[in-house]
Amino acid sequence: MTTYVCVHGAWHGGWCWRSVSARIRAAGHEVFTPTLTGLGERAHLFTPAIGLRTHVDDVLGLLRYEDLRDVVLVGHSYAGLVVREVADRVPERVARLVMVDAWAGRDGESLEDRAPRSLLDWLDSVTEEGAVPAAPPAVAGVTRPDQVAWLAPRLTPQPRRTFSDPTRLSGAVDTVPCRAVLCTPRGPMPFPRLAEEFGWRSTELDVGHDAMVTAPEALADILLEDA
Question: What domain range is 114 assigned to?
C-alpha cells in the first residue's frame, strides 16, 4: 500500500481531490488531502499574514502527526512550491514528488519571480486587502456546466503573500525523485519549462489546468503509476 498526500493549488481546498482520492483508495492505497490555512473549509482563518511558510507548516504538521513516511507527495499548481519545501525539510518522509501543472523555484525565489508579466499584472489589478479573488473556472479549463456549478462556489480568496514569499530550500529536495504532469503543455504558464529546467520526467495530460476536476480518472491513473 502506498500513501498519497495530495495538496491543492491556490483558491481550492482538499475537497478538489474528491474523485481522484476515491479512485486511488479503490486501488487499495491511502490518501490524505489537507486543506491549507485560510482556504476551503478553513477560509474563516484567512488573514493577509498567511504566507508560503504557513502552508508548508500545514503539510509538515500532517506528516508529523499522522506519522506518514514513504509518501507520494503531490502538489497542484501553487502547491508545487509547498510540496518542494516540505520535501526539502523532511526528505526522509517523502518517497517521491509529483508536480501537477505546478510552480517551482530555486532557493529564494517566489511564485511571482517565476510568473509571466500577464499574471503579475492581473494579480496587481485584483488584489484587495491582501486577498486575491478566484478567477472564473474557465481560466483553469473547467467549462462543463455541471463541473462549473460544483467548482465555482467552493473557490475562496488566496492570500497574496503566498505568491510573494520566497521558497527556502537547502538542496535536500533535489535528492527526492520527482515527476511532472503537464496538464496545459501549450498554455501560457511556464510548467513545461520548469520541468525541463529541473530535469523531471514528464507526462502530458492535455485536459486543462484543473485536471482533478475535469479528468480525475486519468490523473489518478497517472498517480497510481507511482504507487
Answer: 3-224
